[in-house]
Amino acid sequence: MGNDLIQLKSVEKYYRGSSKTLKVLENINLHIQQGEILAILGPSGCGKTTLLRQIAGFDHPSSGGVFMDGQEIAKPEVKRMMIFQDFNQLFPWKTVIQNTIYPLQVNRLGDSEATRREIALKYLNLVELSGFEDSYPHQLSGGMKQKAAMARALVIKPKVLLMDEPFGSLDALTRLSLQNLLLKVWRETGVTIVLVTHDIQEAIILSDRIAVMGGRGSGGIKRIIPNQLPRPRAVGAEGYSEVYDQVYSLLDIHSEH
């Protein structure tokens, strides 16, 4: 690590209405390093997803710029793949393997259907979905759908995986299992991961750094906290509560406890 892969420079995002201007992102300066897991943490409505969309290229800043490898990001590209919270991001009429092969077909990767199938099976194995390649999305649990979405995103070897609360709708045990899987994928592929979450525990377990955003309407990053706890991490491990308290004190939370 140590090489900046993505840079956000003085990024602002606002929407002008008839009577007032809504500022969603304010003066965001952020460097994301090659190979790290960065968590973007904050309460609902603070601009986390808007920030992720700027990095993805789905949306553009009102001022400032977002750069990858020194080039300004102008549109979505396969170098940056996004996984959403919604379980319905797979094509319902395609099987798991057809969904996984699809990005290879669209981007003309792999010299034959047999090669593409082989690549797809490799990534389905990585996300622990072997044996479910011929299932349709409606036959899968929520956690399995997210695994399939991960395989589909990884199959084209992106540099960056952008994840918008991907485990937010899962039960606690499934979420824990997918967090462990994500760490395995990260170790084996070296992909850079930017993860939006509102879960302090998830941010601490997964990330190398935690960018804490302010409350609704503030639109800025309050602080970036380095997370140097040794891996694998567990709630209650030495140093965990100190990081938790540090993050918690930055969040505008008054009613959760």
TrEMBL record:
Keyword Transport in annotation: yes
One function term, GO molecular function aspect: ATP binding
Pfam entry (one): ABC_tran
Domain ABC transporter: residue ranges: 6-237
CDD domains: ABC_NrtD_SsuB_transporters
Keywords: ATP-binding, Nucleotide-binding, Transport
Name of the featured protein: ABC-type nitrate/sulfonate/bicarbonate transport system, ATPase component
Family matches, as InterPro entries: AAA+_ATPase, ABC_transporter-like_ATP-bd, ABC_transporter-like_CS, ABC_transporter_ATP-bind, P-loop_NTPase
Gene3D superfamilies cross-referenced by the UniProt entry: P-loop containing nucleotide triphosphate hydrolases (3.40.50.300)
